[in-house]
Amino acid sequence: MRYLISSFCLLFIACGPYPKKHNFQLRTTSNKTIHNPYFSDEKKDYVYKANIAVYDKLFSGIFIVKKLGEANHRIVFTTEMGNKIFDFSFLNDTFKVNFIIEAIDKAILINILKKDFKALIQEKIPVIKSYSLQDTLIYETALSNKKHFYFKTQQLNKIIRVKNAKEKVTFLFLEINNIIANQIKILHSNIKLKINLKSIN
Predict the structure, then answer these.
(1) Coil, helix or strand for 43?
(2) Where does the source fall among the domains of life (predicted)?
């Protein structure tokens, strides 16, 4: 009986909310939104050398993000020779596939890329709850109907998408200079998809 009770307790802890599992401390904050600054300048073309590994395929080339207006972005991925691999448009809550090569023209994969890139370019996200962990502030949000946690020390450096208290996707912002993340990594834990971006501006 004691073993059974212990097992239930461990199961409860394992299935507990993500903040509790990671010892986040709930805090009171006046922040109603969290700001992602990394693709917010309309005057700038964000150009990255990219490697995208999806299942057993590897694509290398140039990844370009352009802000065209308020909540309006274009994302294009080409080979180094200039041939398009995909071309997506985001406007408010609408998403359009302008082009995608046949090798990755799969509805499930397109939906995953849509959610990933939406997290990259969404500038203002409503905050549900705020937490802290040592010197890091953490903001719980809902983006594309998925729970996301935004981690910020001096600047936003990580986003984690969570489902059933488990980390599904990690976005890392590295080598940050002002409002430019010179390196970005998107790592999926449940599928074979990794995106590495290195600024060449």
Answers:
(1) coil
(2) Bacteria
Q: For 120-156, how does the pLDDT look when each residue is reduced to its tens digit (9 = 90+)?
A: 999 999 999 999 999 999 999 999 889 999 999 989 9
Q: What is the mean pLDDT of residues 54-82?
A: 96
The correct answer on CATH 1.25.40 for the domain covering 17-199 is no
For residue 49, count CB atoms less than 10 angstroms from its CB and return exposed for 0-12, middle for 13-18, buried for 19 or more. middle
- Three-state secondary structure call for residue 13: helix
CA distances from 39 to 67, 69, 144, 146 (A): 7, 11, 18, 21
CB distance 166 to 152 below 8 Å: no
Reported as type and span, the H/E element at residue 109 is: helix 107-121
pTM: 0.89
What's the burial of 13, exposed, middle or buried (CB within 10 Å: 0-12/13-18/19+)? exposed
Those residues whose C-beta lies under 8 Å from the C-beta of residue 111, and which sit 6 or more positions away, are: none
Q: Using CA of residue 167, residue 170, residue 176, residue 179, what is the dihedral sign? A: negative
Rounded CA separation 18/74 (Å) = 33
For residues 112 and 145, what is the distance between their CA atoms, to the nearest angstrom?
13
